[in-house]
Amino acid sequence: MKKALFFALVLALTAPMLKAQYYGGIGSIRGGRINVFGGIHNGMTGGTEFYGSTVTTEYGYSYQYFSETQPTTMNHDMSACLGIDFSVLNDRNESFLIGATAGIFGNKNIIHATFDKATLGRPYDTKIDIESNQIDFHIGLAGMVYIVPEKVSIDFSIGPGALFTFGDQVRYRRTPTLPNDTRDNAWGDAPKVDDFMKFPNIDIMAFARIGVSYNITDIMWVGALFQYHQPIIAFGGENTAEYVIRSVNDDIRYIDRKHKDWAALLTWGIDLD
Prior knowledge:
mainly beta; eight-stranded antiparallel β-barrel
């Protein structure tokens, strides 16, 4: 419910500002602003689900089925990220500007998980590394408040977007190693269990950024930003999980969606006035 209310608020704030760029508003409209930023990204635990296999025998037949299994440990590594935004801002007064923004942001998502032998019911422990690519496309509300006139400003932006996750690669290591397992400790594709739907995993998410910028010339600035992603809706719900679930090996499958993450960014920008 909170996520739905937050999403509705973002749309309510964003739509009037996007409309204002075409129909005008209070104060003057500055030209476009291009903002290029890069830095470090880190995912947050919570959206990845693992499934371990169980073998049962009934009426003389053996069956394998998968059920949700909590890993013994799970964490994310930091990775590089890069993005670009284009904004149009309106002067509301001498120190406050607000308007609309749109852009693209990309990063690599890196996950490590371990399963001890008791968790999986196997005679070996398993370590898993997962790497995937992520790109988000977003629109939203952007603004800035000068704390030193025409020199130093607090910048912010907020809005909805679509986050695409694709190109999953996986590596696993069993201890002790099975002698005939040629895939152990080797990177490879993490195929979908059902390849009927080949599109990437998609999250509808919200982003928020806040930071500080310093104008080094009349049209150029540098600064630093903090960014946060909050998932709202993930395509591939419980009724379509078979279309997004991926295989690690015969023992383990996973779904990677509903991504929360943060990024610390350095930014460079120019005004196109």
